[in-house]
Predict the structure.
Amino acid sequence: MTTIGILLAGGASRRYGSPKAFAQFEGRVFYEIAYELLQAVCDEVMIVSRSELLERFPQHLQVIMDDEEVLGEGPLAGIYSAMKNKTAERYVVLPCDMPYLTPSILPKLMASEQATMVRAIREQNRTHPLVSVWKRATFEPLFTYLQEGNRRVQPFMEAVGCEWVAAELVVEQSTEELQNMNEPVAKQQEDFGGKKG
């Protein structure tokens, strides 16, 4: 089965204050952490970013922008654009801003046969639609959804059929591994009393 990794690295990062893809965590760049996780389980990895960031990525990486038809329409536009650029049987999606993710998460999420169009992770009170596995068959309905002016991720996933995998089945130690970084690491650690996450 051909698997393409889609690394979403084009967000505006308004709350963070600078492009999150190039923020640092324990001496490593955010996008590099996600890229390595995808590279371990995918045949190829595509990075979807913004025009002003393209030159900051190493030239040997496959980096694209949103397709013109869906330019600037959020994470779904990035997923659609990567699907349009590369045909595969399935796509594994990650955002660039989850540096606590561990290497075991994606293999566990991909382990069993997928009956639904999308598979993603759910904590008790929170979902993670962008840590997910998508079938190729989502491509056409995704384009239609975007053309109709929609951009919310979870309603689309649930409309086409989504299996929500309980977080405790895929995380290695705790759900802190699923923490999004919406502000610099030092500030988050201060807010959490010095703990990571």
Helices lie at 30-39, 75-85, 105-110, 139-147, 153-160, 185-191.
